[in-house]
Amino acid sequence: MTINGDTEGDINGISNGINKGVIKxxxxxxxxxxxxxxxxxxxxxxxxxxxxxxxxxSEFTATAAALHTVGALxxxxxxxxxxxxxxxxxxxxxxxxADRHRAAYTGLARQVPLPDERLYDALYDRQLRPEAWLxxxxxxxxxxxLRERGIPVAVVSNIGWDPRPVxxxxxxxxxxxxxxxxxxxxxxxxxxxxxxxxxxxLGVAPGDALMVGDDRRAxxxxxxxxxxxxxxxxxxxxxxxxxxxxxxxxxx
Length: 252
Known about the structure:
It holds the Pfam family Hydrolase. InterPro entries: HAD-like_sf (IPR036412), HAD-SF_hydro_IA (IPR006439), HAD_sf (IPR023214). GO terms for molecular function: hydrolase activity. By secondary structure, this protein is of the alpha/beta class. Helix content is 36%, strand content 11%.
């Protein structure tokens, strides 16, 4: 089992045709689309520093690599992750509520030995903080461009916590009209009900909405509702400077 199904390959034909100028509402995924979580090394270093702990360089490197391998960093890349059997059921529904989200990720992290048991919760808490996230370089321009065009925006995310403080800290909250979050609705993408709730929040019909995301399985679920879908790659911030900009061309 993989965390998000990325290893299953692209779903051919998942996007509906996008006709320029007919899009009246935008739905954006959060992690890997508008924002990217810090690297595993930065994540681990910040938590160790805050706890007043240090690891020898070789041990630090090995520990960060092990945390990456097990997919312990929420919002990080997961296509490579094989979830152990005892966590598979929990991980599959981790975004349904806040408690399961924390339990899933601290469970994954506990596969890696750390020098203090308290670090597992500290690692989880670190990813809730705005400083752990960076917006993609073109996110502000695209969101402000949509606002100038009068096109409402919803963030539709499989997540176990409220990302609004991240948007506020980075100056992007003013461009978001609605946050539709799995843990508040009790359903996860690709369930069409989450996309339907987002369209309703924006006051647009699904056929007039465009979903932009990085996960072809989860975000591609919007197509079942009649939304157009546009995919970007989940890459580090400095490796993806302008993948969101085509959205402005699509809306005219």
